[in-house]
Specification:
The protein is α/β, with parallel strands linked by helices and 137 residues long. It has a single domain, classed as Peptidoglycan recognition protein-like (Lysozyme-like), CATH 3.40.80.10. Helices cover 26% and strands 19% of the residues. The longest helix is centred in the last third of the chain and has 17 residues.
């Protein structure tokens, strides 16, 4: 297993309420020339958590941070006009808390971040540090 130092949260940058699957995202990423989906986990609108790239494999989600990180993506992150918006459903929120807490148990030294902490992007369309403190992570 790789040494994991960071857990990085992303959004799919898709309109609120639009269902997107691991296979859809995998297709987007492969069309960009990547070998596989860049994220290790994707959280669907209903809160179900789906595996993407295996945890043992280096992701392709945050430039300069992939070697020692895990990428989590929730479906959504934009309003109907494609402007950044925190579109997490209650089910996605609960699943994200559970998943991150589980990963923190497995990798206790890992820190939790939003993609926007490493890139000039709105992703994941919410303040991860504020959220982390609110949910006790």
């Amino acid at each position: 297993m790789r040494n994991i130092e960071k857990i990085i949260i992303h959004c799919s940058a898709t309109p609120e309420g639009r269902a997107v699957t691991v296979e859809t995202i995998r297709g987007w990423h492969k069309r960009q020339g990547w070998s596989d989906i860049g994220y290790h986990y994707v959280i669907y609108l209903d809160g179900s958590v789906h595996e993407g790239r295996p945890l043992e494999a280096i992701g392709a989600h945050t430039t300069g941070e992939n070697t020692y990180s895990i990428g989590i993506c929730y479906v959504g992150g934009c309003d109907q006009n494609m402007r950044p918006k925190d579109t997490r459903t209650a089910a996605q929120e609960a699943a994200l808390v559970k998943l991150v807490k589980s990963l923190k148990e497995r990798f206790p030294g890992a820190t939790v971040h939003g993609h926007n902490e490493f890139a000039a992007k709105a992703c994941p369309s919410f303040d991860v540090q504020k959220w982390r403190k609110e949910v006790g992570i």
